[in-house]
Every structure is written in structure tokens, then in C-alpha cells.
Design goal:
The protein is mainly α. Helix content is about 65%, strand content about 0%. It has ten helices and no strands. The model has no long low-confidence stretch (mean pLDDT about 95).
Length: about 220
């Protein structure tokens, strides 16, 4: 059966956001490892509230706004948004996380789509650019990005709290409406709407840099 344009775009989006896509997101906890180790996050409800806060008020929200702006931007403006995204990283490890994932993503896209090169540093901007160039619907791309962001943090919590797989799925299901609402807000947001008030998450990311024993890179 022939692959239609719509099917091809869906397959590309699924590939971009698949755990098998070689970007290494599994190696980063976004500061959550320190929060778990310190006893701040110790249950499924804690995990849900922590991630929801990031999506509504923190780095998840900023990533969504950056994705939305970068998707619609020219290459020149997108490069400026990319620099802004890196400047917004609240700690050294957050900067490492977004730049490492972004550059790994760009290299993987170049392998998947021969000749498609992107000189971008940060993850949300690189994913937005790849989605735009592949003709993937903006809303679909943003939803997939936020779902992957959320699921990666849930996977961290399943390993470290630890949560059972069932509780992890409950957290995942409980956050789907939050993801959808965040994406809808971000689709009409401007760069002036960027901002984070999740200070505890930012502090956790900073303290993770000197955590004595750790599994994750951030």
C-alpha cells in the first residue's frame, strides 16, 4: 500500500518523538532526581503536581512557547529564538540538557532525512524546525513534544521514587488534559508570554550539579 503524504508526516512525527530516536533524553531528569532524593517528590501525586507545574508555569510552558514561535519563524528569526531558548536555561545542566538534546536531534534528523541539516542548538527549536520542514501540523507536533517531555519525567519517577508502572500510567493519564490545554495556550502565545515561576524546580536543577550520587545528567 502506498504511503500518503499525511501518513508519511505522521510516521515522521512518531519517529521524532519515539524513545528510540537517538537524542538521549532518557539520560536527563530535568532536576527531578534531586527533588526525589531530597524527599520533596515521593509519591505519584507529587510527581503529577511537579510535572503539571512545569507545563503550566515552568520550563514546559516556555518550551511550548518557543516551539510555537520557532515553527512559524523564518530561518533568521528562528536562530534568534534559538539563542533566547538557551539564555532561558535556569542552570548549567538545563543549558546542557537542551543543547545536547537539540544537537543530537538535529544530527538524527539529518540521518533520517538525507540532506536535511539544521544549525540549531536547543531542543524545542530544533524539533519545531524539523516539524515545519516536514510539513507536520503545528498543533500535532507541539502535542507530541509536550507528551514526550512529560513521559520522560514520568519514566524518571518510575525508576527513582519508585513508582509502579500502574501508578506511572495513572500520572500519564492525569496529565493529558494539561498537555492539551498548554498546547492550545502556546499556539496563540507570543514570546512576550515567556516566563517561569517554578523556582523549586530551577533550584533542584542547580543542586543536582553537585549531588553526590546520581543516575541522570541533569
Amino acid at each position: 500500500m502506498a504511503i500518503t503524504t499525511e501518513s508519511q508526516q505522521l510516521l515522521q512525527l512518531l519517529a521524532f518523538m519515539s524513545p528510540a530516536f537517538p537524542v538521549g533524553s532518557f539520560a536527563y531528569s530535568h532536576g527531578l532526581e534531586w527533588a526525589i532524593d531530597d524527599g520533596i517528590v515521593k509519591s505519584g501525586d507529587d510527581v503529577r503536581v511537579w510535572i503539571e507545574s512545569l507545563l503550566v508555569h515552568g520550563s514546559g510552558w516556555n518550551d511550548a512557547v518557543l516551539f510555537s514561535a520557532a515553527y512559524d519563524a523564518s530561518d533568521e528569526v528562528r536562530a534568534e529564538i534559538d539563542e533566547l531558548a538557551l539564555a532561558l536555561a535556569a542552570s548549567r545542566e538545563r543549558a546542557l540538557e537542551t543543547s545536547d538534546l537539540g544537537q543530537s536531534f538535529a544530527k538524527a534528523v539529518a540521518t533520517l532525512s538525507a540532506g536535511e541539516t539544521m544549525n540549531l542548538q536547543t531542543y524545542p527549536v530544533a524539533v519545531a524546525a524539523a516539524c515545519q520542514k516536514a510539513g507536520i501540523d503545528k498543533r500535532a507536533g507541539l502535542l507530541a513534544y509536550l507528551q514526550a517531555f512529560t513521559n520522560n519525567l514520568i519514566a524518571v519517577a518510575v525508576r527513582l521514587v519508585p513508582l509502579g508502572q500502574t501508578k506511572g500510567l495513572e500520572v500519564m493519564g492525569g496529565l493529558m488534559s494539561v498537555i492539551a490545554k498548554t498546547a492550545e495556550r502556546a499556539l496563540t502565545a507570543k514570546l512576550d508570554d515567556l516566563g517561569s515561576s517554578t523556582l523549586l524546580s530551577d533550584i533542584s536543577a542547580m543542586r543536582h550539579e553537585t549531588q553526590y550520587s546520581r543516575v541522570f545528567r541533569s
